[in-house]
Amino acid sequence: MLGSSDTAVNVGVNAETHIRLANGLVAIEVDLEKGDYAYAGSRGFALQDVRSGFRWQGREYHTGHYDRHYMIGQPEKIQDPFGTGIHAVIKHESDLLPGLEQHFYVYEGASSFITRVVIVGQEELKVNRIAVVKTDSVSSGSETVPGEALHVLRVPYDNDKWVRYLTETAPLETESYEVTALFQPDSRNGLILGSISHDVWKTGIRVKGETAGKLDELELYAGAADIMTRDSQPHGYIRGTRVESPLVMVGDYDDYRTGLEAYGEANTKVAPALSWDGGVPIGWNSWSAAMSTLDYSLYVATSDFLKREVQPQGFHNEDTLYINFDAFWDRLTPAEMEDALKRVRENGHKPGTYWTPFAFWGSPAGFGNPVEGTDGKYTYGDILLRDQDGEILPDVDGGLAIDPTHPGNLARIDWFMDKFVSEGFEYIKLDFMAHGALEGKHYNPDITTGIAEGRHLLFAVRVLGQQYGAGGRRDERKI
Fold first, then answer.
1. Cα–Cα distance between 155 and 229 in angstroms, integer?
2. pTM value > 0.70
3. Which of 124, 239, 383, 386 makes an SS bond possible with 408, Cβ 3.0 to 4.6 Å?
4. Where does 108-266 show beta strands of DSSP type E?
5. What's the average model confidence in pLDDT over 36-42?
6. Which pLDDT tens digit goes with each residue over 350-405?
7. CA–CA separation, 159 vs 228, rounded Å?
8. Could you give phi then psi for residue 156, rounded to 5 degrees?
9. What is the rounded CA–CA span in Å between residue 230 and residue 363?
10. Beta-carbon count within 10 A of 247 CB
11. 177 close to 194: Cβ distance less than 8 angstroms
């Protein structure tokens, strides 16, 4: 037992047959004879016969295919950003298969547990799909309650092409991305499953139910790549003697909305938000009002109007308003841009701009255009993301993907950041981010997945942004 409250973490061990981890809100029981486990939450949700697996050399393998299942050592007491708890590792072995480790993290007082799967080999492995949680047995405690059908929340991968959140009930076959909620709309009891680390993999959650009110399949897996992630290529492979899945959170809550908030908080513990003390940015963005008709007159007239008519009514945050360009700002001449930004600042407003760092919007005729900041060394045709055969990837929403790892694009980032800062912009909206996470063959061979690719460039943008001082110039680059 760890702790002294009703929600302390208890570990029950029968080294031959079962391992039980529980804290009063979450219970996990591992069957060391079959290689699966059961989950039970305090709100009535339960998963039976849960397995983990992976795709290797053309076939899918899961923990039920292994001959030997055991716990490595004893559960380790841990203290980390999630709290006080235990970490237990279950190892699955067979003579002809790579090893598979299931890592379980159970915390005192938590309504969820965290898990990760690791594929282990004596030699380098090549894996592009890991099933972290896979079961054909899902129950919510509402199966016998008339009218209390279990709803499934589908979370889209992005918001391109106007895709929306939606809920469905069985019969269904759907896929959510990064996170989902299985919930009862009347009581609001809900089960939350989602990845909480996002540095290598895209995560999908497949849910299937063939008859009304019953779910037959639930699988949370790393390696999603389909039309909804905007991918035309398979998910990239991860190589190494230890290939890790993302961290995954599973737990049920008396209100699924509380569970989704807990999921969001868990993500911030893995990757904390950058500090910001400027209050919530509030103001005007040109897209909804102007779209492609944006021009100098509209931009400055909007700042004048807000200053005169709206800001005195309380439309500001700490007396600050942002006046933001969206797409088509490049139609202004340099002289118009300089004068427009001067006018906005005279009104006491902060100017903002717009950029799509991962997308090329030109036609093939523009492939020969030199990339900004490269002194003619690279053209846009050079920096576009391609497949393994060298073909440019299909466009998404009319834009072709740029390879974030290409040195020409890194120089382009420098050029645009210098431009925006020298012009005095204090806000940048980055759009069409999914282009930067598409699967493909990257210039940098160490980047083998789309998420790792996008993260690479976002890191570059973030570091550059932090290197500008009050004088508007960048310190020595340290990427």
1. 12
2. yes
3. 383
4. 112-127, 130-135, 137-139, 151-154, 166-169, 172-177, 179-183, 190-195, 203-209, 217-222, 238-244, 248-253
5. 97
6. 999 999 999 999 999 999 999 999 999 999 999 999 999 999 999 999 999 999 99
7. 10
8. -70, 155
9. 20
10. 21
11. no
